[in-house]
Specification:
CATH class: Mainly Beta
Strand content: 35-45%
CATH topology: OB fold (Dihydrolipoamide Acetyltransferase, E2P)
Number of domains: 1
Number of helices: 3
Strand order of the largest sheet: 1-2-3-9-8-5
Number of strands: 9
Largest sheet: 6 strands, antiparallel
């Protein structure tokens, strides 16, 4: 798993990358109450804003740690944003890219 300076992570399996935020980032944010995810099919450049997380403390942008096309979003975190707080580096992933 690779981490960025802005607290995103990327886990590569072949040409597919799963993206989320680090456990440290979710602790800093506090209770996450809303998540805006990219659209499936959207092409992202490395470092481009990909998602927005809103917590009871702040709203933060999530940047794509790699270039690629969004092939899947995690519907579970959209429905239950607190899942990112519970499991930021596993089941709380945000989206998948075809790298």
């Amino acid at each position: 798993m690779e981490h960025t300076d802005s607290h995103e992570w990327l886990e590569r399996k072949g040409n597919i990358g799963t993206v989320g935020i680090t456990d440290a980032a979710q602790k800093e944010l506090g209770e996450i109450v809303f998540i805006q995810l990219p659209k499936v099919g959207q092409k992202l450049k490395k470092g481009e804003e990909a998602a927005v997380l809103e917590s009871t403390k702040a709203a933060v942008d999530v940047y794509s740690p790699a270039a690629g096309k969004v092939i899947e979003i995690n519907e579970k975190v959209r429905a239950t944003p607190g899942l990112v707080n519970q499991s930021a580096e596993s089941s709380g992933w945000l989206f998948r890219l075809e790298l």
